[in-house]
Amino acid sequence: MINASLKQISAHLAAKKISSVELTQLYLDRIAAFNSRLNAYITVNPEMSLAQAREADFRIAAGKAEALTGIPIAQKDIFCAKGWRTTCGSKMLENFISPYDAHVIGQFNNAGAVNLGKTNMDEFAMGSSNETSYFGAVKNPWDRNAVPGGSSGGSACAVATRLCAAATGTDTGGSIRQPAALCGISGLKPTYGVCSRYGMIAFASSLDQAGPMAHSAEDLALLLNVMAGFDERDSTSLQREKEDYARDLTKPLNGLRIGLPKEFFAEGLSNDVAQAVEAAIAEYKKLGASVVEISLPNSRLSVPVYYVLAPAEASSNLSRFDGVRYGHRAPDYTDLADMYEKSRAQGFGAEVKRRIMIGTYVLSHGYYDAYYLQAQKIRRLIAQDFTEAFRQCDIIMGPTSPSTAFKLGEKGDDPVQMYLSDIYTIAVNLAGLPGMSIPCGFGAANNGNPGMPVGLQIIGNYFDEARMLNAAHQYQLATDWHNRVPQGL
Ligand code: GLN
To answer: How many domains does the chain have?
Structure first.
């Protein structure tokens, strides 16, 4: 059952081969057995999960099941869920119990899915390795000395190890795609505005987007069908007609034009990743696609632009954590200013403080024009590069991450090296485009270290998720990388 697709699980539930309560218990038992080795979950609450499972069983018995009814889904701990502790990976929210549901959580609840627990993440989603979590690093299930990627590393690890049927993530600069790549699973960041950000703790609001993480493209489509949709509580939520993201899965790929950005296959890309990605492209040619070289000349500026804009927005978003209404408050202080200062100094970790300081600096009088305004202009150029590229191709492919999973602690002291892990993903967020990562092989094994998963990144034009899922699904019908499971937990 734990290797079954969401469609198969749903069929088993409908046929009464297993109940949602039994299935939920199965996953809870696996979490109890394995989580201490992996640290994928911050919070599990068996009582609340099983209550939802019982409700789902009634709904199935009443013949009112939908595609995800009764299926246990892990939720990234950035989503507020009513009655659940919601920490965002921070000491600041260590004891925060959310009084309301995020829109995405509400959508899963309406669909009858079971909330299986809250997954570990980099603090306030700032990181590429999950090492900034106040609750400790997540381990990569393929090599527990390696990072799972970040910031949705807990979700990626839980999906890879079958500690949930599927999970959610959020992606501001790569946080769904990069951990999906490093853990050998599939993950999709939709077009900006497709999933409501209501109740999703804000990092950089012009970039943040929720998305699904799962074993296959087919599963992603079913999850996105539930997560997407207009919500008036998020001013950037798009009012579009509801679509079925699974509608094109079975289309053949004949005539698909794949653009390969030459900048993504240049210096900085490790050999083993390049080889796996090139083999995947060869497979696509066999499936009937053609390849064109494209150029994204401004993509080299995406990391510096992002590290002006994202911290600027974060410094504003995180000002709400002041120790007054909710979150950590310092136990001892002399006056109001001292209370703010001490609460924030104690509640935030080092990476979050670094971002707040950068953000405050680039927004300050006298520097705004030089940094923030300049970065906004380059952001526009980066988006235009993609518009230009999509005149020559239908879809863009390349590596998700420049290397396979690196070792825990390897980049902790070097923020710039850490920031470069997102060199191929960040431009997609700056442009607001949809992007996904699917497993496409393994890197080289050396010195007793196992070969680690490689991710193929697929970038689509605005609202082209169905086409991307089609391309991913056809590849997954022809290959079995997405079915590989880490052994020996
Ligand atoms: N790794 C990037 C950062 O640290 C992106 C994180 C994300 O997408 N949430 O900001």
So the answer is: 1
* Spatial CB neighbours of 332, under 8 Å, sequence gap ≥ 6: 342
Query: Can you give the pLDDT at residue 446?
Result: 78
Between CA 171 and CA 428 the distance in angstroms is 10
Per the annotation, the verdict on 155 as an active-site residue is no
Ranges of beta strands (E only) in 140-278 are 166-170, 186-189, 210-214, 257-261
Say if 403 falls within a structural domain: no
pLDDT digits (tens, 9 = 90+) for 473-482: 999 999 999 9
Residue 172 CA, closest ligand 1 atom number: 8
The answer to whether 7 is a known catalytic residue is no
Please provide the size of the chain in residues: 489
The residue segments making up the domain with residue 188 are: 6-256
Gap from CA of 342 to ligand 1 centroid (Å) = 26
Q: How far is the CA of 303 from the centre of ligand 1 (A)?
A: 11
Q: Residue 20 in contact with residue 58, Cβ under 8 Å? A: no
Instruction: Say yes or no to pLDDT of 76 above 80.
Output: yes
Q: Looking at residue 448, what is its pLDDT?
A: 74
**Structural domain contains residue 400:** no
The residues lining ligand 1, judged by C-beta closer than 6 Å to any ligand atom, are: 125-128, 151, 171-175, 203, 310, 422
Q: Is the peptide bond before 151 cis (omega within 30 degrees of 0)?
A: yes
Token couple for 244: 């079925």
What's the pLDDT at 486? 95
**Which DSSP helix (H) or strand (E) runs through 271?**
helix 271-286
Per-residue model confidence (pLDDT) at position 415: 87
Q: pLDDT per residue over 25-61, tens digit each?
A: 999 999 999 999 999 999 999 999 999 999 999 999 9
- Contact at 8 Å (CB) between 469 and 194? no
Q: Give me the catalytic one of 175, 186, 216, 237.
A: 175
The DSSP result for 30-47, as a single string, is HHHHHHHHH--EEE--HH
In the numeric block, which tokens belong to residue 403? 């290397």
74 close to 223: Cβ distance less than 8 angstroms = no
Residue 444 within a domain = no
Q: Give the tens place of pLDDT for each residue, 139-152.
A: 999 999 999 999 99
Instruction: For residue 285, indicate whether it is catalytic.
Output: no
What's the pTM value of the predicted model, to 2 decimals? 0.98
Residue 416 confidence (pLDDT): 87
> What CATH number has the domain bearing residue 102?
3.90.1300.10
With the most atoms of ligand 1 within 8 angstroms of its CB, the residue from 78, 122, 177, 406 to mutate is 122
From the CA of 176, give the closest atom in ligand 1: 8
Q: For residue 25, tell me if it sits in a domain.
A: yes
